[in-house]
Amino acid sequence: MTFTSDVFDVETIELAGTTEHIVRGGRHLFGALPRAFAGVRRIGVLGWGPQGRAQALNLRDSLADTGITVTVGLRPGSSSAADAEAHGFHRADGTLGDWLDVAATSDLVLLLVSDAAQVAHRAEIFAALRPGATLGLSHGFLAGHLANEGLDWPAGISVIAVCPKGMGDSLRRLYRQGADVDGAGINASFAVAADHDGYAVDRALAWSIAIGSPYTFRTTLDDERLSDIVGERAILLGGVHGIVESLYQRYRTAGATPPEAYDRACATVTDPVARTISRAGLRAVRDGLSGPERADFDRAYAASYRPCRDLVEEIYDEVADGNELRSVVLNSRRLARTPLAPVSGSAMWTGERAATGLTDPFTAGVFVAAMVAQVDVLAAHGHPWSEIVNESVIEAVDSLLPYMRARDVSYMVDNCSVTARLGARKWGPRFAAALDQVVYPAADGTPDPAPVDAFLDHPVHDVLARLAPLRPPVDISV
């Protein structure tokens, strides 16, 4: 999508025959932030979840000595107040306060409370915003809810979004690594839903650069909502969870010991496959295998691609129709009474584990097929390539899977939003069932090789190669 900036350099890039525009980040741009944040003297961050905490800290560090104050707003009695104070936000100096008071006194209000809380308290938050303020979001959930209910944004308010393509903990850790490697961080998309003073684009870009985004691309709130919520339910969280659980049981049934099954099913994905994709792209996973191993990869890929694509299409339809949003709102009422249990209770996580660093070719074929299936669904629905590869590939290997590698699946899934956690729990078992009932029987026969042929010539390989130089040479510390 085309956009211009009065402050930052906008680059044109060609991706698979399409033209996109991006802005590169980096700490050398921090001096331009006050100019880009035109008219903003106070940024209010509402919420202290993973994104709220990370973004408040990153913004405060980036805007030090600029005269722009970052204030955290919490609900009365919030259990997060002590942690916010421990991180240097205090009521005494006005950098910590009641969320509605902070909303009323801030020029840019970042609404980073949970999606369910945004829905439940939308009216009072909107009423608190002062005329001419800018409302910032990091997710399209609220936009989808408003559309479902036939509602709109408050009059006289600019509405922007900056959506980091990774969990809050990754955002903070990579930002801190950026002190040594300029530009280290999490890529982000931005969107403008309403611009009442002409500064919305530059404010969004400044916000993205200030939280450490190596590069920022434009989208719409609707596209962001669709791609983000679909991705959480598919390859980013739910899909990979269901895939590794199913593969673990397949290998155990075939006689593998628990450590061997874990190594082949999960460690293969989180270690050699994720690292290879991050550094060299999807095709490099197959290229790194020998003849017989490559045949196993092809057999698994060919059998997996269509069933996984069918599932991702179903997820996309459910998100587009609003069903997934309504489900989150409904279930959040239950969660207020009964918190979610961890998802790491299966034998794969509670038993003995091992990680040799070797690639199981069958596992690799299944995982890469599911990832490409999501790429193709988003492409078929017209999403821009930057959004497609960030939501389907980069976020998985550079932000999420390192957390599962470090500890377990709960450490990855449950560090994300409630929306993501609910989606992973709902759709992960569907992926496992598809593998058990459709993929394995097909793989044990003679699957159609057409999906592999399409994979070898897929435009995603060129897109990843084009975007790879924009990624700082760091690995997330967990």
Keywords:
alpha/beta; ten-stranded mixed β-sheet; 10 strands; 2 domains; Rossmann fold; globular; 22 helices; single chain; about 475 residues; N-(1-d-carboxylethyl)-l-norvaline Dehydrogenase, domain 2
| Helical residue percent band | 55-70%
Shape: globular
The CATH homologous superfamily of the largest domain: N-(1-d-carboxylethyl)-l-norvaline Dehydrogenase, domain 2
SS-derived structural category: alpha/beta
> How would you name the oligomeric state of the polypeptide chains in this document?
single chain
Radius of gyration: 22 Å
Largest sheet report: 10 strands, mixed
Instruction: Specify the number of helices.
Output: 22
CATH uppermost class of the largest domain: Mainly Alpha
Span between termini: 34 Å
- CATH architectural category of the largest domain: Orthogonal Bundle
Beta strand count: 10
- What is the beta-strand fraction? 5-15%
Number of domains: 2
CATH fold topology of the largest domain: N-(1-d-carboxylethyl)-l-norvaline Dehydrogenase, domain 2
Q: Indicate the mean pLDDT.
A: 95
In the sheet with the most strands, the strands line up as 1-2-10-9-8-7-6-3-4-5
Uncertain segments: none
